[in-house]
Write a structure and sequence with these properties.
The structure holds 2 protein chains of 2 kinds. Chain A has helices spanning 3-20, 22-25, 57-93, 95-109, 113-123, 130-144, 147-161, 164-171, 176-212, 224-227, 234-239, 245-268. Chain A is mainly α. In chain A, helix 3 (57-93) packs parallel to helix 6, helix 3 (57-93) packs parallel to helix 7 and helix 4 (95-109) runs antiparallel to helix 7 (147-161). By secondary structure, chain B is an all-alpha fold. In chain B, a hairpin with a 4-residue loop joins strand 1 (81-82) and strand 2 (87-88). The radius of gyration of chain B is 26 Å and the shape is elongated. Classes of the chains: A mainly alpha, B mainly alpha. Chain A binds chain B through residues 103, 106-107, 109-116, 118-119, 121-123, 126, 201, 205, 208-209, 212-215, 228, 231-232, 234, 237, 247, 250-252, 254-255, 258-259, and chain B through 12, 15-16, 19, 27, 139-140, 142-148, 151, 154-155, 224-225, 227-229, 231-232, 235-236, 246-247, 249-251, 253, 255, 258-259, 261-262, 265-266, 269-270, 273.
Amino acid sequence: MSFKQKVALAILGIAVAASLGAGLLAQSPYSEQFRDAISAPPSAHFWLGTDELGRDRFSRLLYGTRVSLLLAPAAALLATLIAALIGGAAGYLGGRWERFVTAGVDLFLSLPWLFLLLAVRALLPLNTSPVTSVIITFLLLGCLGWAAPARMIRAGTRMLVNSDFLVQASASGVSRWRLFWRHLLPNLRPILLAQFWISIPLFILSEANLGLLGLGVSEPLPSWGAMLRDLENYSAVLQNPWILAPAILLVAVVGCLQLLLRTEDSVAC
Amino acid sequence: MLSALLLRQAMRIMLTVLLGGLLGATLVRMGPGFGVDERELDSRLSADSQQAIRAERAKENNIALFYARYLGGFIHGDFGFSRSLNRPVAELLRQRLPLTLASLGYGVFGGASMGLALALLTVWWRAPGMDVASALLSGLCLAAPAAIIALVLLWMGAASRWAIALVVFPHVYRYAKNQLVATAQSPHVVAAEAKGLSSWRVLWAHVFTPAAPQLAALAGISVSLAFGASIPIEVICDTPGVGQLAWRAAMDRDLPLLVTITVLVALMTMVVNSLADLGLAAWKNGAAPPASAGSAPA
């Protein structure tokens, strides 16, 4: 691991630790409204000031980081599992099933990602409780983000199925089930891990875009996407540059993940 | 080989139209307000007229007939009616598509040119500080959501098409850089340099030309990326394009409009991808030596 990657890991570690310790670090709950301190500048009590409803921006940033940083990996895990199931089965079984899955994946990938997200999100109820909106947003990301990983996993599985050690194991009379669990799956682990890591920044960015468009996590629950909506008011950003904190944190975290991914990419190859 | 590829791509596009048409028809049928005709409340209409209206609508209850009619309309350019904007979808698309396509054209061309130029400056001419600057710029563009890029450009007073270019640029830059590094280190390039060929000639004939098909294949991916980015960019920059239309349709839950836009965008992406694939195949066919050329005479 290079020096840059160590720094990236440290920044990510601090962000995750701060979001997990939000209850300890934040001086007030994320939804509490201080009516006597509306749009207040940073102070000893409100480290990043307050928003137009008088809510502590620092507290919202910490809790928003928790939502985005914990649920994006969960969605990535779901997407990787679906991809492993579909892509793995296609590569393992081959024949018609493989052709069918490949055609399906190609079709799925021809849809631009945000258009697909928007279309499916609009099918689901828009006026939901904040918790439901979080579940819908990240389930959607997990359920729709399987296609690209499935293509990689299918190719990896196909390569393994045709490898000498698996052909030999098969010829020795090892059952298909055992072949899959004991020989195929452990060797697929690096590809699965790489696909999992690759999906995380993609899902964080997608949530941010959806949130900015008003189709992400509902208020008063904070998320990076929802907090970025404050940036639409240019004059407010000029007067209160600390509003930029969620955008800076988002870019820093995704940038760190991209830096770390270079190692994962090399593992996947 | 080329005709087989053409057939496969045509089948893929046809399948998308069929699936998209079915999806759109299902959503129209299941959508709120289907089967309701406000003319029934018009007291000026006689009982016979109202009966005729009901009979006309009853035909649409036959699912197979409805699907066939919807699909027929879709193929002939009748994309249905937008409930939220109270206008035909085809008319809305006619107004907004040219603007989005122009932005996409500028954006993809600008992003690809920027990516290629920076990759060449970094790999080939090894301009001092260029590697760090390019890596920083591409990393920043890759880590920022399209909406943030659009906001920053809006603050700077730049055109929204530059936001699309900045979304496309890091992907082209990274791919082009990897391709150029791999080609520049290959033995035939080292040999050409050792023979004293000019830097430009080595670059054009031995580095860029062999890598061109792979770089051209990026066109399809770039178009898909640019279409996706056009939604937040057009919404943030208040550009009346297809991306903004899709967002409004999603917010108003105008599902027929949204599905029609999505299917059309998918079709356009597929056509560009198919053209890139066909171009690549034609290039390979043209570049491949005849079967007997390389072999020794029997």
